[in-house]
Automatic annotation (TrEMBL):
<comment type="similarity">
    <text>Belongs to the DnaB/DnaD family.</text>
</comment>
<dbReference type="InterPro" id="IPR034829">
    <property type="entry name" value="DnaD-like_sf"/>
</dbReference>
<dbReference type="Pfam" id="PF07261">
    <property type="entry name" value="DnaB_2"/>
</dbReference>
<feature type="domain" description="DnaD N-terminal">
    <location>
        <begin position="16"/>
        <end position="109"/>
    </location>
</feature>
<feature type="domain" description="DnaB/C C-terminal">
    <location>
        <begin position="146"/>
        <end position="216"/>
    </location>
</feature>
<dbReference type="InterPro" id="IPR053843">
    <property type="entry name" value="DnaD_N"/>
</dbReference>
<dbReference type="InterPro" id="IPR006343">
    <property type="entry name" value="DnaB/C_C"/>
</dbReference>
<dbReference type="InterPro" id="IPR036388">
    <property type="entry name" value="WH-like_DNA-bd_sf"/>
</dbReference>
<dbReference type="Pfam" id="PF21984">
    <property type="entry name" value="DnaD_N"/>
</dbReference>
<protein>
    <submittedName>
        <fullName>DnaD domain protein</fullName>
    </submittedName>
</protein>
<dbReference type="InterPro" id="IPR053162">
    <property type="entry name" value="DnaD"/>
</dbReference>
Length: 244
């Protein structure tokens, strides 16, 4: 059992939007094409942008020729593109890009404003769950909207997945992410890597709520009155602003 748990931990996790799982058929994908995308996403999350087709074949039990045919179908359906890039040695390699798939999902979302995630509850519990879920969804949406507004542009698919990972895998609250965003804006740094450093730094200090940030702020200010602040932490400092 310990070995199994270790393998689960070492293998990491792959974040997949439920909206894709719910609607892949509506944008023209079939089950095999979704499986191949999931395999590519697994590699992308590990920083491998040009996955080995043989490894994907081994994981899916789909032979190489079938995988290439599936990729060809995805290109024809305008769900994927293949871009030629160069590595540090100047050698060309193929990079698989699924931005078109997310664009189709975005178009589908715009045409279906009444979409509701699948729910398995009924009765009063279902009503309470929907109310709680609605508050959670609103907070989640506000995070994406706030970051796009502060960055002054639309977020890329990779950035959208990074933010989803904060919410779904790291379980950072929307409020905490927005506080980290505010700190980044105060420092005029407009990228997710900086926000991620802030969140990780807070997590190291066991700060996962707005109240926790407030307490750290009070502690920091009290300490600053006694002596000049010393910061030997590689991560960003706790934001110096009053939380409303």
């Amino acid at each position: 059992m310990d070995q199994f748990v270790n393998r689960l931990i070492q293998g990491g996790q792959t974040t997949i939007p439920n909206y894709l799982i719910d609607n892949y058929a509506k944008i023209g994908m079939n089950a095999n094409e979704l499986v191949i995308y999931l395999q590519f996403k697994r590699f992308f999350d590990r920083g491998v942008m040009a996955p080995d087709i043989e490894q994907i074949s081994s994981a899916t039990n789909i032979n190489d020729n079938e995988i290439y045919q599936i990729l060809h179908n995805l290109i024809q359906k305008k769900l994927m593109t293949i871009e030629t890039k160069q590595d540090w040695d100047g050698k060309d390699f193929d990079q698989y890009n699924f931005d078109l798939m997310y664009e189709k999902l975005s178009e589908l979302s715009a045409s279906d404003p009444d979409y509701q995630p699948v729910s398995g509850m009924n009765g009063t519990n279902d009503a309470n769950h929907r109310q709680t879920e609605s508050m959670s969804v609103n907070g989640r949406q506000h995070v994406f909207v706030s970051i796009e507004r502060e960055f002054g542009r639309e977020l890329s698919p990779i950035e959208l997945e990074t933010i989803s990972g904060w919410l779904d895998q790291s379980h950072y609250s929307p409020e905490l992410i927005e506080l980290a965003l505010r700190e980044a804006v105060l420092n005029q740094v407009y990228n997710l890597k900086y926000i991620d450093r802030i969140l990780i730094n807070w997590e190291k200090k066991n700060i996962r709520t707005a109240d926790g940030v407030e307490r750290e702020l009070n502690r920091y200010q009290g300490h600053s009155r006694r002596q000049a602040p010393i910061n030997d932490d590689d991560g960003p400092e706790i934001p110096i602003f009053k939380i409303k």
